C-alpha cells in the first residue's frame, strides 16, 4: 500500500471570521447541528486525550453528553485509566473529527468532576442494560476472558432483578471547562482555515486565525 500517495483536496467550503458566532459554544452548537443534519455517524463522538503523572498521553473515543457555556460533559467509570489520568493531570483535550464535512473541532481545557446530583440524574436516564454494565465492568482492569465479563453482567442482572439500578459510587462524569476552542475547516491545497477562540476571562473570548 502506497500510503504516502493517498491524498485528496478539501473543497466543501471555507471559514471566515465573519462566519463565527460570538462565542465558541454557540459556534460549536451551529456546527454540531450541521453535523446532525448531514447524518454523519456518531456526531457526538469525541477523542479525549489525557496524560498520566509521568506525562504519557492516552486517547480514546467517548460520547459527549451535554454542553453549555460552562463546558463539555461526558460520563465514565471513575476508576478507569482516563479518570486516574485526570486525577493526576486535569488538563485535557477533546477532538471532534467530522471528516465527512471536512471539519474538526479541538477543545483544550480542564476536567472537573461533576456533582453527584448531576451524575445521578444522567445515570437514571440510561437504558437498564447500560446501567447494569456500569456495575459489571471494572473498566481498564485486565480480564481473563469475554466469558468472565458476561458472567459478571449476568450476576448484576440477578442482583438488581425487579429493582431500580442505583448509580455505582465509582461511576460519574466530568465537565471540560475550555480555555481554547479551535474550529478547523479543510481547504484546497492544504491551505486550511483554522480559527481559535481563546478565553480572556469573565466570559470574554479572543479570536485568532492560525496558519494551517
Count structural domains.
1
Q: What proportion of the residues is helical, as a percent range?
A: 25-40%
The arrangement of helices and strands along the chain is HEEEEHEEHHHEEE
CATH H-level superfamily: Electron Transport, Fmn-binding Protein, Chain A
Shape: globular
Q: Largest sheet, described in full?
A: 9 strands, antiparallel
Mean pLDDT: 96
CATH class: Mainly Beta
Domain Pyridoxamine 5'-phosphate oxidase N-terminal: 32-156
Family: Belongs to the pyridoxamine 5'-phosphate oxidase family.
Protein name: Pyridoxine/pyridoxamine 5'-phosphate oxidase
Pathway: Cofactor metabolism; pyridoxal 5'-phosphate salvage; pyridoxal 5'-phosphate from pyridoxine 5'-phosphate: step 1/1; Cofactor metabolism; pyridoxal 5'-phosphate salvage; pyridoxal 5'-phosphate from pyridoxamine 5'-phosphate: step 1/1
Describe the structure.
The protein is an alpha+beta fold. The chain has one domain (3-124, 175-210): Electron Transport, Fmn-binding Protein, Chain A (Pnp Oxidase, Chain A, Roll). Helix content is 26%, strand content 35%. The protein contains five helices and nine strands. The chain is globular and about 60 Å long.
